[in-house]
Amino acid sequence: MVISLKNLIIGSFLSILILIALLGYRQNIFTSTILPYDDEQTGLDNQIVIKFSHVVAENTPKGIAAEKFKNLVETKSDGRIIVQIYPNAMLYNDHNELQALKDGEIQMIAPTFSKMTDYLPNWQVLDLPFVIENEEQLERVLTGPLSDKLLDELDSINIKGLTFWSNGFKQMASSDSPIIETEDFLDKKIRIMPSNILEEQFNLLKANPVEASFDDVFNELENQQINAQENTISNIYSKNFYEMENHITLSNHGILSYAVMMNHEFWDQLNTEDQTILLDALEEMEIWQFEQAVEINNNNLQALLREEAVSIYKLNKVSRNKWKKELFPIYDYFKKNVHPTYLDELIQEINN
Ligand code: LMR
Q1: Ligand 1, atom 5: nearest CA belongs to which residue?
Q2: Ligand 1 pocket check: which of 59, 164, 190, 193 to mutate, most ligand atoms within 8 Å of Cβ?
Q3: What count of other Cβ atoms lies within 10 Å of the Cβ of residue 324?
Q4: Mean pLDDT (whole number) for 257-274
Q5: Could you tell me the distance, in angstroms and rounded to a whole number, from the CA of residue 112 to the centre of ligand 1?
Q6: Backbone angles phi, psi at 101, to 5 degrees
Q7: Nearest atom of ligand 1 to the alpha carbon of 94
Q8: 55 CB less than 6 Å from ligand 1?
């Protein structure tokens, strides 16, 4: 049978028309049918969306705390309050997340307290080394009256402080050679978060402090602009910093915790019931969060111990005391330049 070219063209044209009509029908393009009324959609009118941006990986103490918070809030509000999480600085980084929060681009962040010290210098009290010595003290301080005072200070920059989350203790990680004795600090280019106390800490140890945002650390290590940093095991592990900083000294010399905060106008516009849902969620997960931080850091340490290329050192008492001796002037520096009583208040809480 011979099919003429004309018939072939007409046939193809008709097939395409039928196909378009079928697709259009499936997508409701040509039908003007009014969709049945879905009374669940009325709920969308009073749906509240909280965009929560942070800079670390999802499998870290802050990452999983954000997830837990989301689940609790969404369950408690029957899905009326939605928490959208943006990890890994995918939306905003250390340099711009605070401004984005203030501008209402996002509603929640949880930066390390050190990153707030440019605006609230008193927060440097938590940066002081060798003051908080163990997890039990850390938990007491982060849930105690001094922490409440620090969170209240956020009001002065029009931010609502909600609570503190923990990521445990900072360790020293370095490339090329370990940092164990105080002499090992000499001329090391150590990445720090923006905090005068942290800068002073490494100046006293005769190192070279270099400020860098968290999402720049990997590049700066690669480009050898830095060759050491203080951070928690979970941050060193989850961001693969150990691939370059393969000497890790378990020094526990300082703490790393997060101030969970919200855009103030957003908070003020929430009704009491919704504010209570958020606060209840944070309270319910408080102990869980501290436990998770310990567990994740421990698990990540076990994983690092299995890495052949990574050497892990424990700071013994003698070396530790030498670090402390070098750092001794920092406490006076804080009292004279930052706050006269906060350090004493901190010590009193620890000893209670
Ligand atoms: C850092 O910059 O090293 C940390 O603050 C990152 C984080 O949020 O834990």
Answers
A1: 112
A2: 193
A3: 13
A4: 98
A5: 6
A6: -65, -45
A7: 2
A8: yes
Q: Quick one: which H or E segment has residue 7?
A: helix 5-26
For CA atoms 130, 136, 142, 145, give the dihedral sign. negative
Fold type of domain 43-351: D-Maltodextrin-Binding Protein; domain 2 (3.40.190)
Q: How far is the CA of 268 from the centre of ligand 1 (A)?
A: 28
Closest alpha carbon to 132 in 170, 165, 164: 170
Q: Ligand 1 within 6 A of 53 CB? A: no
- Tell me the domain boundaries of the chain: 43-351
- Amino acid at residue number 156: S
| Any atom of ligand 1 within 6 Å of the Cβ of 112 | yes
Distance separating alpha carbons of residues 125 and 134, to the nearest angstrom:
17
| Rounded Cα–Cα distance for residues 242 and 231 (Å) | 11
Q: How much distance in Å is there from the Cα of 56 to the middle of ligand 1?
A: 7
Pairing between β-strand 159-174 and β-strand 247-263 as defined by DSSP bridges: antiparallel
pTM over 0.90: no
With beta carbons less than 8 A apart as the criterion, state whether 241 and 214 touch.
Answer: no
Which residue type does 318 have?
V
Q: Are 289 and 61 in contact (CB under 8 A)?
A: yes
Residues in the chain: 352
| Cβ atoms of 345 and 335 closer than 8 Å | no
Q: How confident is the model at residue 352 (pLDDT cuts 50, 70, 90)?
A: confident
pLDDT at 312 over 60: yes
Whether 56 is in the pocket of ligand 1, judged by its Cβ within 6 Å, is: yes
195 close to ligand 1 (CB < 6 Angstrom): no
Q: What is the mean pLDDT of residues 176-190?
A: 97
Contacts of 199 (CB under 8 A, 6+ apart): 192, 209, 211
For residues 81, 88, 285, 345, the Cα torsion angle rounded to the nearest 10 degrees is -120
Tell me the angle at which helices 135-142 and 342-351 cross, rounded to the nearest 10 degrees: 120
Q: Is 214 in the pocket of ligand 1 (CB under 6 A)?
A: yes
